[in-house]
Amino acid sequence: VLNVESNAGTVLATTSQLDREKEKILEDKGVRIIKADNGKGNVNLEMLMDELYKLEIDSVLLEGGGTLNYSALESGIVDKVMMFIALKIIGGKTAISPVEGAGRQLMKDAIRLKDIVVSRFDEDFLVEGYLNQEDDLCSPEL
Fold first, then answer.
1. How do residues 7-20 score in pLDDT, each as one tens digit?
2. Considering the entire predicted model, what is its pTM?
3. DSSP line for the chain
4. CB of 94 within 8 A of CB of 100?
């Protein structure tokens, strides 16, 4: 992630819980650090988007687990979803989900995508789509 020989800058989004020694090491390597606390020990994604906008960054790739994916959808910062699907079945009640959190209880309330494109990469598929703006993503039920 930190390629100090690259001309591209690196921005690290974190909370005020970042160890000061680690923060100094990162800053010395040219990393710009944005602290955006949400009060629950996680990054406030809306605040982060505001800070990135001030840096004239208008496109962000979030690559994370189910918790980050859920938080991004819930906060309303997502325009486009890109998900890889591997044709492998894990199963089980405790299998990790690409979107965790509270979820939606009813299919009629599911988050829908539009303008969907499906591409194949060897044995995997990439599904790309834009969020349907009619869905209320910030509802407390999500």
1. 778 899 999 999 99
2. 0.74
3. ---TTSSS--EEEE-TTS-HHHHHHHHHTT-EEEE-B-SSSSB-HHHHHHHHHHTT---------HHHHHHHHHHT--SEEEEEEES----STTPPPSS-SS--SSGGGS--EEEEEEEEETTEEEEEEEE-TTS-TT-TT-
4. no
**Which residue's entry shows tokens 């680690």?**
22
Quote the radius of gyration of the chain (alpha carbons, Å).
Answer: 18
Half-sphere exposure of residue 77: CA atoms within 13 angstroms, side-chain side: 20
pLDDT digits (tens, 9 = 90+) for 21-65: 999 999 998 899 999 999 888 899 999 999 999 999 988 888 878
Contacts made by residues 60-68, CB under 8 angstroms, sequence distance 24+: 65/96, 65/98, 65/100, 66/96, 66/97, 66/98, 66/99, 66/100, 66/101, 67/100, 67/101
Calculate mean pLDDT across residues 103-131: 92
